[in-house]
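Two proteins follow. First one:
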Amino acid sequence: MTAETGDWTPAISPSGGPLYLQIVEAIEAGLRTGSLREGDRLPAQRALAERLGVDFTTVTRAYAEARRRNLIDAVTGRGSFVAPRRDPAAPPLDLSMNIPPAPKGVRLAELVARGVSEISARSNLDLLMSYHPGAGSSAERAGGAAWLRRTLGKVDPDRVLVASGAQSALAAILSVEARAGEAVLCEPLAYPGLLSAANQFDVAVVAAEADGDGMRPDALEAALRANPKARLLYLNPSIANPTAVTMPETRRREIAAVAVRGGLKILEDDPYSPLAADPPPAFATLAPTATFHVATVSKCLTPGLRIAFVVAPDAASRERLAEALRAISLMAPPLMSALVCGWIRDGVAADLLAGVRAEAEARQALARAALPAAVAHPSGLHLWLPLAGGWDRHGLAERARRQGLAVTPSDAFRVGGPAVEAVRVSLGAVPERARLATALETLSSILAGGPKALRDVV
């Protein structure tokens, strides 16, 4: 709970050295003695300047230095607050991990406890704690079909498989649809999990050029001609990771037509479309006999729920995929999948999704104000920040690290072609919205200072 410290007045002296540093040292002393505590709101800068009889710029400089030392956080429109105490060895504020933010007013621990209690009352908990080889029970597959309805329309539960997260599903699909020495085609910047899985199976990953609407149809045709062993096309078409691009319907139809003519299977990785108010049609509806559709709940509800629903293009593909999933992870955790499907059935998942979407939209508004040059979706979990003004991605990441921030350079996503001077900035991992605002403002200030500032301190 925030406390007001409007009467806090540091003791300063004309003979005590630079006045702004005396204010900073007074904040440090207040933290040591307990007269200032985490979350306390400091006096407004102008009010403190009048009280001390110093220039306004002296207090502004003091608060800026206090922020640099991680003593206070500033929130636009609200003021300056004593920051939580940070272990110098602790990791930086994480703008690198793409996870959904916790929605306001939702206590996940209570939801989980209540959900498990309801499962215990309705199900045989002993059975849920045993092995369940296969691709999901009939109830779980029905839950998956219900979850997919908003994206794919009515889905036959017999076409649905339940996997222990999207990564297991991607690996399983690669293992059955792309043999060693063959190739999977994708955009020049792609999800690192795909790249890692392809490397494990000795499958080449080949880039087909993209533009502002995603992969270009002519580039896909060229990639097919150059790579006759390509068997699989990987797409992340809605709020793409990392570029935040959503491929429009016309482009999707063009890409689907090229893929079908070329005999490609499509791997549609779709973690983010539930966050969008009105996403374009999924590839699984445009080319249903050619598409594996993977929809995880980890990226739109909470990362701890390692459950993904997969729709296969036909019965034979489904059986091969079920065998691959058994080989890779044996089963999705039954208690976890029962919890997810219970939430879907009871409406908890829809409410949680709405809360995550609202929080994501609020965080994107903060990001637009701080980083207007970024590419983003209004309800996405991340933004893509192309760099200009002489910045390079590694220099920015290093400068951000020195300021207590972590961002992801483009190298993590690069498939081929020249390096892209850009970073991905993720908005969900910092728990408090106010702390996120401070982190984004810090990143904006770093960019405004220019790359020379980094060279000066190295």
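Second one, unrelated to the first:
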Amino acid sequence: MPGRLFRSKSFIGSVAAAVLAAIVSTATGSHAQEQPDSLRWKVGGGNLVTHLTGAPTANLYTALRTVGAKLGRMDSYGWRDDKHKPTPHDFDAAMMEAYRKGITPIILLEYEGSYQELNPPQLIGSYDEWFIMGATYARRFQPGGEWAREHGISGFGASIFTAINEPDVQASIPKKDYHDALAGFADGVHSVNSMLKVVPGGFATCNSNGDPTLGGYGTAIADLLQSGQLDGIDLHTYYNARWFPLTKGRFFSAQGCFDRVKQALGITRDINFYATEFNIARDGDWTAPDLIASLFLTAIWDHLGVVGSQGRPATVLAFPWNFADTGRIEGPAYAMATHENPWAPDGRSKVMQMVLSLAGDMKFTKLDPLHQGVFELVGDQSALFVWQNRSDWTDRPGPNWTIKMPDWAKTAELWGWDGLRRTFEVKGGQALTVRELTIGETYMVRVR
């Protein structure tokens, strides 16, 4: 389709037993039940496909742990039987693997419109059927749920439940049936625990087709977003030199799509933003590794820094796709690894690792993506300032960046997509002006 390269949703690579053993030996087996608001608790990847535990998923776990992410999208195609009865034990082995590897799952029940063409056809199902699904999976896999109690595990489980990935691509599911399925799923999950979050599986067509109604599927669930039954909306963003070029301004941004979708759907509630897939396409005019890495740094902060009303931080999830693939499975466009055995990162994965090493344990204190294009974050012993110094990503692009230093500041470091560039001695409470910057890059200044 325009602006999009088709991708398989499952990862089926393999790694050597020695690598798997190394991961298991370093597994934490410890998880905080209440996830903090720090950046690394917003970042993850997928898919942790339930029928591919063990060696086939080891590459992805290595990638997540190496870059410093905490989350993984756990995807099941076997979550119900032919009679539409839930089969929650399909997740059991994958949940244990995630627990041992120190990754918290985001659960996805997958359904494609093509299932309606099977013999016999597998229709999407009714509100009542999806209510049962939601209640069943929430009871079993929420923190402290049935699965955790069976294994004597505390502080671990899924707090976010999603269903039906990219319905707007095939666009074959009847929209009323889609609405009723999501309504039943959300109500079922909330009947178990009102604090759990339910989100529709990601949408593709704001990105690929410039359609803020999401093929009509966004419109179909607008009432569920407005009521709060659905916590927010998951938008997949694949920046592309031809179809979605961030180099041509922030219209081509996650923030831009989020705002246009809310407006098109008439959403006035301050919903949250989710992104279980985003990447820079290695395609067309964007093939040079340095360019891809530079663009990806902009994309990371675009996703992490999405705001709702009055500058409220809105991002819950920001998952690049696909950390684990070398291109052997899905082609080179979105592959973020250069080697499988052992896993080795490409430039984009290295940029993600750098961001989380600098700011993974920080929280936002200022977000201004719509005007100055700046973000500010603070941690226990440091702060980070981010500037999207690209035309139309800031209202003041230029070669100089002036930042007021925190009172405790002693040193400052300028970072770009390629790592540390300069260091400065600074005085707390005074301004630092960083000069000779290039318009068309994202910059970060860490202060300690």
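SUMMARY FIELD: The chain has a mean pLDDT of 92. DSSP finds 13 helices and 19 strands in the chain.
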